[in-house]
Structures are given as structure tokens and as C-alpha cells.
Amino acid sequence: MAVMAMYTCGIVFAADEIIYSQNFDSLDDGDVDGQGGLARISVLTPAIGSPTVQSNVTLTGAGKAMQVDTLQEVFAIWEPVESGTCYLSIFFRKEDVDPSNTLHIYMGKGARAWSAGPVIRIGAQSGDPAMIGVHDGDDATIVQAAKFEVGKWHHIRQVVDVDNLSFVVYLDGKNIGKFDFRNASHDAIEWVMIGFDAGIGTLGYYDAIEFGLGTGEQAYNRAVAVEPAEKLSTTWGDVKIEY
Predict the structure, then answer these.
(1) Residue 116: which CATH number?
(2) I want to staple 61 with a disulfide (CB 3.0 to 4.6 A). Which of 40, 73, 152, 233 is the partner?
């Protein structure tokens, strides 16, 4: 069930309707498959394994985050959003283990598939290991939209116009472009898929996922507000936000 997000920790937030959120802190260490509304991609060949919940590398130096290694991908699913505006807020940290590694962020409807709606490729599959690539309108067109820093946490917010099959991407609060869905048949949003179906070693980490109705302008602030005090360490300064 969706909940209206109205936190009052000295700040009044916009009333986005949060449909799914996960910061991994309450999940058990080990395989994330089957926890917190997340499931591994089990229908693909080669078989895709489950990312893991761990506490060694986290967004703020405490709590937990999800680690993605070779051939690990996971998805969350909800009731389809078939019209209007919705958003995804997510933090990622890419590791510099191998130049061929990538982290994915896919959204779409129906069967989980590479040919999705909004598609982001972080790393090698953007065409440059140091760039974030976004599919724009078809399978062949990938726009190298922004650089990112390896080994540091970054925040991505996607604001999706479902009616017009387009989306705007913000990296650490900065608008890095407006794009069309990769595949127009994914004309609703009912899942997010993250991880990578290849790779070498530890690819990276994800944390503080939030999907909902609205623009999610305060999703980053909500992630800060709901963290316990001991998690708000100086490592938060590694994420440079321009909101």
C-alpha cells in the first residue's frame, strides 16, 4: 500500500506518494533475494545470482547497503503506474575493479527485460567506463550524460512522464538531460531492476531506493531525515547535492 510522505523534522516535505522504499538496514545480511520486496532475476541465461546485504560499505558509514558482484541482478515490483508523473530515487557507488563493469538501472512494465522503458547504464556500457549513459528513444542510442566518481556515492533521481514516455535524470541534484523511453511498449512503470548481468568482482553498491508518484524533489532529504543519528557521519559529504 502506498503511503503519503510527510515528515516534520524541522522541514515540511512535498507530499509525494511513496509506493516502494528500501534502505536495507532492517534486512538480514546475505542474499537479498526474497527480502524487502526484492527478488533475483531467475529466468535469464546464464543464471543471475542474488546481490547481498552487507554493512562494510554503506552510504553513511553505518547501517547497511546492497552489494552487487559478478552476475547479480535484482528487481522490485508494484502495481503499474499507467499515467501521470512518477519518480525513482536511488544512491549508487561504482567500484573500479574492471573497466568492463557496469551498473544498471532499468524500469518498465510486464516481464523484466533489457529492452525496458527508462534505462541507465553506469560505467562501461555507456561507451566510457567513467560516464553515465542513458538510452534515448531506441536500443541503439545511448547518450553519455554525465561523469561520475569511482568509489564514491552518487544520487540519481529520475522523474518519469508516463503519458509522454519520457524522463528527466538528475545526478546529485543536477539536471543531466531529458530522454525518451528505450522501448515504447513499456508504457507503464511497475518495476525497477538493478545490478548487472556480467562483470568481474565487486561491481558496486546501491542504497536508499524510493519510488513513488510525484517528482520526488525531497526524496534525498527524506533519505537523510529517516536515517538514525549514528548514520549521519561525515561520509555523507561525499555526496554533493545541488538541490
Answers:
(1) 2.60.120.200
(2) 233
